[in-house]
Automatic annotation (TrEMBL):
Domain Beta/gamma crystallin 'Greek key': 37-75, 76-118, 165-207
Region ranges (Disordered): 1-30
Functional note: Crystallins are the dominant structural components of the vertebrate eye lens.
Low complexity bias: start-end ranges: 18-30
Xref: SMART domains: XTALbg
Protein name: Beta/gamma crystallin 'Greek key' domain-containing protein
Organism, as annotated: Solea senegalensis
Amino acid sequence: MPVRYKSRARTGGRQQCSSSNSSSSSTTMTTTDMSMGKIIFYEDRNFQGRSYECMSDCADMSSYLSRCHSCRVESGCFMVYDRPNYMGNQYFMRRGEYSDYMNMMGMSGGIRSCRMIPMHRGQFRMRIYERENFGGQMHEMMDDCENIMDRYRMSDCQSSNVMDGHWLMYEQPHYRGRMMYMRPGEYRSFREMGWSGMRFMSMRRITDMC
């Protein structure tokens, strides 16, 4: 959904962002996907220095903070990225305090962009495919899967179609290793998305328990 960003100075050097829907958008937010979330980023560890409060997607945090070493998720769930425009390694953050997230989460670089995950109520449904462009084996999932090899005898997943809900895909079984956030839509080639050489082996729903 297209959004417009606006920011204003707040006491203590904090910046705030909010979003508004474009009147020309053809996409409608349904009651099953509700935008509810707030995250605050801080320049220094232990929530020190200038801060930036965000309640929507942010494609480039460098416009607000020159660096980021800690954050606090006050509500909702977010994906954070170590490159602008939602690129690079992805990390999932739920409600809580991250006083030194680089050390806590094993991140080698700072947060450069973030995406808010809408809270979803309703069924979850995703189809995973063995090959690119929806080729090879296909399996439809409605719940978590800690190992697609054990469940489906499927050694690789290279494309998918997310029909309902929001998901995380992991490169290793049991929800370990690098991850990718999947929202409703078609993903014809993980390789062309910059995930060449990656094999996603487990999938988990993002529930409203964030």
